[in-house]
Every structure is written in C-alpha cells, then in structure tokens.
Amino acid sequence: MDIIVCVKRVPDVAEAEVDIDSSGRGIQLGTLGYVINEWDNFAVEAAVSLVEAHGGKVTAVTVGGEDDEDVLRRALAMGADEALHLTDPVFEGSDSFGIAGILSQAVADIPYDLLLTGAVSGDVGGGRVGPMLAAMAGIPHVCLATELSVEGSTARVRHEVEGGLERVVELDLPALVTVQTGMNEPRYVSVLGIRKAGRKPLRTAGTAEIGLDPDTVGPAAVRVRIDEMFLPPRGEGAEILAGNDEDTVAALVDRLRQQGGI
Amino acid sequence: MADFVGVDFYEMDEMLSDEQRLVRDTVRKFIQDKALPIIEDHQREGTFPISLLPVIAEMGLLGAHIPDYGAGMDALAYGLIMQELERGDTGIRSFASVQGGLCMYPIWRYGSDEQKDEWLPRMDAGEVIACFGLTEPDAGSDPSAMRTRAERDGDDWVLNGVKYWITNGTLAHLAVIWAMTDDGVRGFLVPTDTPGFTANQIKAKYSLRASDTAGLVMEGCRVPEALRLPLAEGLKAPLTCLNEARYGIAWGAIGAAMACYDEALRYAQVRVAFGRPIAGKQLIQEMLVECVSEITKAQLLCWRLALLKDEGKAHPAYISLAKRNNVAMARNTARMCREILGANGILDDYQTFRHMVNIESVYTYEGTHQIHTLIVGQKITGESAF
C-alpha cells in the first residue's frame, strides 16, 4: 500500500506569546522556533505504521522554501521512504487553494492508495488544504480522523463530527483522510533513523517539473486576501487573584464553592 | 511559557548539518515533553527517572556514537545529545554517559566479538543497564592506588574489593569492573547477579539526586576468563573510557548552563522592580551578558573539539581543557542565574538550583577540576605536577 503524507513546517505558537507584525496581516516570527505541524506528526506516524503493517511505501510531501526541507528529513527519519519537496519562488504567498493545486498536480504523477494530511495546521488552523486536495484529485475524503485502518481496497475511519459525536465510515481507496491529534502516539525520531534518512531519496520539484501553470499560484492568484489580523480583545469578567499562594488558593476554593464548582 | 529554543548568540546553528540539528531538536523536545514534567519529583525522592529509559533507548541515545552496534553518530551530534540531556538534568546525561561512554565504549573497543555481540545490542536497547567501577573510597583521582584485586583461579577470576561513587550502581545488570591483577589493571564484565556482588545505594546526597549512585562490594566474586576484556591492558584502558565520557560532559555542561540562563533571562524580563523589568537594570544585564558570553565560548570550544575528535586528533588534554572550562562555566552560570532569580531561585519551581547543585558533582567527577588543570599543565609545560 502506497501512502502520500502531506506535511508542513510551522512556527511554534502553541505556548509562545504571539504579536502582530507591522503589516497587521501576520504574526511576528522573530524568535519563534519552527516545528513540524503537530497534526502532520500524527499523520506521518499513521502512514509509517500502516506501511509497516501492510507493506508498501510512504512518500512525504511539503510545499515551501529551503528551510522547509527540515520537515521532510524529519518524516524520513520517522520512517517515510521517500520525500518530495515542492519548491519554487512563485509558490510563495499562495493561499490554501493555491497550495492544494500544487499538491494535486504533484501527486497526480505518484501512484497512491491513501493521501494523508493533518486535520489543520498549527499556524492558521484553516483545515482547508486536505478537503480541497481531495476534490481536485477527485477522490473521497473524511476529516478529523481519530482511528484509521485499511483492509483490501477499503479504509475504515473513525472521525469526529459536531456535538462531540464520533462516526465510523468506510471509504473506497484511493481516498484522503485528514488526521486529528491523538490518533496514535507519534514515535520519537531515532538517531539511527536520522542517519538512514540521509540516504533516502529526497526529490525537489517546481512548476516546470510538475507541469503547473505558474499563474495559478502565488499572491496574484490568491482568492482569499487577509485584511487584518489582531489579538483577541481582553475579555471582561476575568479576575486575577493576587497575593501569596496560600491566600490565592483559599480565595479560589471560595469562588469555586460559591459558583458550585466543588 | 514558550518552549526552550536554546542559546545561540553566535548563530552556530548554521554550522550544524541538517542531521545534527534534527538530532538536537528531537532530544530537546523529548526532554521538554517527557523529562521536565517529572524531574523535580525524582529530585525530591532521590530516584533516577527510569520510566524515561525505554524512549531514550528507542531514540538510540545510549550507543549513539558506537559504530556498528549503535547509530555511529559523529562527535558533534553525540555532543549535542549530551547537551540536551543535561539541559533536562545531569542525572539523565550521566546515565547516558555511563551506559554509552563508559560501558558500551570499552566493550566495543577492548572486548571480544562474542562479548560485543552478547552485550552491545542489549545495552543499546536499554535492556541491559551497566555501570563502570573504577573509583574506590580511597582511590579517586589516583586510580592506580586501587585496592580491588582479581586473582586468577583456573579458568576463572576471583574479584575482591569495593568501588564507590558508581553511577547506575543499583540499577545495573552488568558492571564493568577494573581490578588490579599480577599483570596490572584489567577490565571485567561482571553480571550484577554474580554471587558475592552487592550494590548499595548512596542516598544522602545534596547533588545528583535524580541519579543512582552506589557503592559496589565484591567478596569472592567469581567470573570466567571469557568475561575479561581481552584487549584492555593497564590503566590506559579505563582512562581512555573516561576520555569518552569527559568529552560528553564538556557538552553536557553547556546544556545545564543553557537551562539556567534561559530561565534567568525569562524571569528577568517579567520580574518588575522599581517600576520596570529587572532585565533593564545594569547589574542584572551584566550578569546575563557574562552568562551568554561564557556559554558562547564554551559552545565554540566544543564545536572545535568535536571536529578534532572525528579527525582522531582530540588529545586527552584538549578534552580536559573543555571539561575543565565548561563545567566551571556552568557552575558560575548557575550561581549567577540563581542570584537573578532572587529568593525564587531557591525553590524547586525553578530548575536553576537543581542544576547548580548537580554541577558540584560534575565539577568533581570524571577528573576533578584540579586534575584536569594538571593534565593541561603537563601538556603545555612538559612537566608532571601530579
């Protein structure tokens, strides 16, 4: 079974203080570290363990600049067999639709049974690329998967639906599944894996190699423009308890008692 | 609080390969996610966080620098692993140093093929924990004064003696014991369930609390000749192992210093006194600048040392210089950072004090600061001052 897993390198904003940049349309990247998108990490683990169980090949794909190659090396170190780095100056500034277009054009040349992506990305959290890519590739998809197994030419997926419910669905392969965090326990990359990764094929391709019309990507092709980005306004009704630990804990217990929390 | 991103004032990341960076970042994340949440509990209880071992082994950190049996990483990547482990705690780095540098290394270098095949894969996998028995209660800096004896008796050797300050001592399944014979010092692989072998934990420690430190007693401990390391002859063999471990310590000290500096810097940026963050006070800035200067110098030392080591040109005195400098640096850095943290610096809500007391052990073990002074002194003057 051949699996393509789409991965992305994102600024690590999970626990960082985030500020808006001078354009007012993005965040200050400054000292932020970069990591593999958390959801993609689960997707890579899912891909690698499926192939370990069923045989086949995992190809990791990313769209981005030179520094984004890190995320592919990491996927290779986790156990992916090959990597494809889609990189071209004209890709920069593409929106989700543009990115999905690049990916769909690139994967058209690669045989696969399953396409995996993270359910969302940790930077913007739109969750759009996966479903768009499925539509462009003309294959069925399911989002927010929490379990995934494959039997023959069918994928069985448990996934989250609204209202805290979950559902189990079956899809004919090839199909696309977007992976929710918690689906598995992503392995730590081993140093031996990192050594092996250096010897695995990592191919780069731009518009010419994948046969993509450059006019469909980049800022000029953007269909959704960001007008403004801002931090959430400070909420009202929040109370910060001051004092030493003993007093604040006593005050907190008091509040919880009054509000019926305990 | 934002995750630790390292200290890299001189943009040394650029000098690392993708592979080295990935190794570093992977260990860094492991320490952040798995070690830091539990380390203070182990510090309080005085226990090694053994629950981390399966992942440490799965990541291949134990024999990372051992060719054929481990991942065979280059010296720089190995150093970065040690740095990140000690960023978590000296006890975690010490465990890995002992298992890899002091125990897997001598088996790989001085052992028979049968010994390598029997022990190294299981040690790399963390299934066999090992300890290194050289130091004795009355023989530390001068190991030639060791009293532990091994007497030949037919096809066996009979060991008698006491080893002390032995990291991993009570956890170990295998002890690499150095003992005096009629032909000089020899190394023995002693399974810890051998009759006559006992390990007793040293509990009342202020420092290295999240590490297993023990005294080993051997009374008529009988091991076959097949468990003697055939290529280890004389004191040079264990000293060569120490060189491996000292190299890792030079890197580890940077990790401990980074942890303290990172904590103190963040604290100084939010702690307000006289109306503004103390990071904006001259006295605090001077301390922070001192810390970052010394960390940067230590990084450059280690970077060069790593390249020399891979070229087979790292003279033991070069390693001594780096161990001596970097551990003293970490000791000073930890103390300054403790000062910056003010009264909070004595709480275990902050990690600096833990590193500060840990470094006291590192300052003294694997060649005291003074012994390394004498090794470098001898190298530059040609005169032994031991």
The residue-averaged pLDDT of chain B reads 96
Number of strands of chain B: 9
Bin the helical content of chain B.
Answer: 40-55%
Strand content of chain A: 15-25%
What is the CATH superfamily label of the largest domain in chain B? Butyryl-CoA Dehydrogenase, subunit A, domain 3
Q: Determine the structural class of chain B based on helices, strands and strand pairing.
A: alpha+beta
State the major sheet of chain A: 9 strands, mixed
CATH H-level superfamily of chain A? HUPs
How far do the termini of chain A sit from each other? 52 Å
What is the third-level CATH name, the topology of chain A?
A: Rossmann fold
The coarse overall form of chain A would be globular
Q: Name the structural class of chain A.
A: alpha/beta
Description:
The complex is a heterodimer of chains A (262) and B (386). The termini of chain A are far apart. Chain A contains 7 helices and 11 strands. In chain A, helix 2 packs across helix 5. Chain A has 262 residues and is an alpha/beta fold. Chain A has a single domain, classed as HUPs (Rossmann fold), CATH 3.40.50.620. Chain A is globular, with a radius of gyration of 21 Å. In chain A, 38% of the residues are buried. In chain A, strand 7 and strand 8 form a beta hairpin. Chain B is of the alpha+beta class. Chain B folds into 3 domains: 12-124, Acyl-CoA dehydrogenase/oxidase, N-terminal domain (Butyryl-Coa Dehydrogenase, subunit A, domain 1, Orthogonal Bundle); 131-234, Butyryl-CoA Dehydrogenase, subunit A, domain 2; 237-381, Butyryl-CoA Dehydrogenase, subunit A, domain 3 (Up-down Bundle), CATH 1.20.140.10. Chain B has 10 helices and 9 strands. In chain B, the strands form 3 sheets. A 4-stranded antiparallel beta sheet of chain B has the order 2-3-7-6, with helices on one face. In chain B, strand 2 and strand 3 (156-167) form a beta hairpin. Chain B is globular, with a radius of gyration of 21 Å. Classes of the chains: A alpha/beta (262), B alpha+beta (386). At the A-B interface, helix 2 and helix 5 of A face helix 1 of B.
